[in-house]
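REQUEST
  id: r-88c1
  op: predict_structure
  target: Type I restriction modification DNA specificity domain-containing protein
  payload:
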Amino acid sequence: MRWSTVTIGGVCSKPQYGWTTKAMSEGGRIRLLRTTDITSGEIDWSTVPFCTDEPPDVDKYLLHEGDIVISRAGSVGVSYLITRVKPSVFASYLIRFRPGPTVEGRYLAYFLKSRDYWQQIADNTSGIAIPNVNASKISDIRLPLAPLALQRRIVAEIEKQFSRLDQAVASLQRVKAQLKRYKASVLKAAVEGRLVETEADRARREGRSFETGAELAAQGSANAAGGRKPGAALPYETGEQLLKRILDTRRSQWKGNGKYKEPAAPDTSGLPKLPEGWVWCGFEQVSSADKHALKAGPFGSALKKDVYVPSGYKIYGQEQVIRGDHSFGDYFIEEAKFRELENCTVKPGDLLISLVGTAGKVLVLPENARPGIINPRLIKLSLNPSFIAPAYAAYMLQSAWATLFFKGQAHGGTMEILNLGIVKTLPVPLPPLREQHRIVAEVDRRLSIVREVEAEVDANLKRAQALRQSVLTRAFAGDAG
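RESPONSE
  id: r-88c1
  status: 200
  body:
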């Protein structure tokens, strides 16, 4: 018998749509398999819900080993070959196909992952506003059919090749997990004073003395006038002295209405001991001398989509922060709206902090960032780089210290939600300024290596996926090995 071209409907029994009912998490007898339960490629039966209402003829909808279910909406075309089934029926957005005697179930299941199959799905859904397929369209999808004995050999060869790829992918995923742990350990060490030599230790080693803020200011004037002797040691300013200098500067340069109000210090009771020369502070204390230096985005009603324009002042939102790309996105407002929302404007060096879902994720705007405003899902933090390095603050926000603090304070159930009040209460470990810059340089160096390795790992994962398709292409072209 030669290879032939057949349709899915031609080698399967009559397709069947699933049962329509609501799902409940517990208390039922029969589980309800949904599209969302098969999209990962594996079914975790412990998370599959139960039917609120069982079908009157349960046997008609019961799943059996060897059944293939295909999604007709949502994740259109996603399929799953049922194995090790628990008492369950399938939901209405799934269509069941039962392979007939001329086709091996695993052979058909592997075809449903091939490029040829997905191209036919794409052809059937192109031009449709809400992509979907029906049983008739899936039944008409063509596939190359080998003789039954050869189908089994093809399946065995595919599984051998996939097993090797699975091992390689698992190894790559372990590397990614190790890189993630390493990055976390670098950031943890950075904000605990263990990544670089502390300014206190360096000052002792170099014979430098402690300096007051006034002496540092005077020394800075001498430096500007050329008064420092060549090779003279730089004075040592502690984090506590730096914080005092920041607060004094904020007080003298304050841009706001009414009497200046001293920013509240965070509650430091029960906090771990900091390295010598460090001090606890809050973002409100170290933000720049502007009333709106630490500001949440405008109310949603002030920034509806009907005010968006094709070009103008950029609207920054979570999409830029999540991607770590300030240039992403094309939402803009005109100048009049920009002036109206000037309290929410951002500039290079500002930190953008995500409030919802990816709570605490942060982006530092670079020098070439477009002028714009933040949307309601962000907080902006403006710092004076003469006192605190924005990159240090960003790394601190990405560290386990800030992450755990936010997790403990955030609300919103399954979706973590921060607010301005929570961000204001975060205790921030503040090292001396020179130490901040050394920390940033060392974190940059180490994380650049991490990014290089991650890029190589991701490239290899993409190659593995391409190899899977290559295996399938050869298999269904009559060349499995």
